[in-house]
Specification:
It is a single chain. The protein is α+β, with helices and mostly antiparallel strands. The protein folds into two domains: 37 residues; 69 residues, Copper binding periplasmic protein CusF (OB fold (Dihydrolipoamide Acetyltransferase, E2P)), CATH 2.40.50.320. It is built from one helix and five strands, in the order H-E-E-E-E-E. A five-stranded mixed beta barrel has the order 1-2-3-5-4. A hairpin with a 2-residue loop joins strand 4 and strand 5. The relative contact order is 0.15.
Amino acid sequence: MKALHHILIAGAVGAVAAFAGVAQAQSGHDHHAAPAPATTKVAQTAPAEMSEGEVRKIDAAGKKITLKHGPLKNLDMPAMTMVFRVRDPAWLNQMKPGDRIRFVVERVNGALTLTEFQPAR
């Protein structure tokens, strides 16, 4: 009876060990597998919705713009007045304080940056 008991325990331990090995291989921990292509790691996002605002100040030397803006939905930010960097400093020559614009702000290298704009209609 004791021999049967030991055989059953040994079989159970072996089954658990085999199951653990299969689970590990399936979880992506196989160090011999080829890495996934880089394109699968990039998340595809929809273009950000444009927000509306008014140009308050332009700092051409600092490559920044101050906008009084409505909610920035893509950043979950309420309406306020704040300073943003601009992706293209040449855009600052196309605007002046008081202009109403439609724009997109995104985080670029940790900084809130104006990445698109157009005159408001």
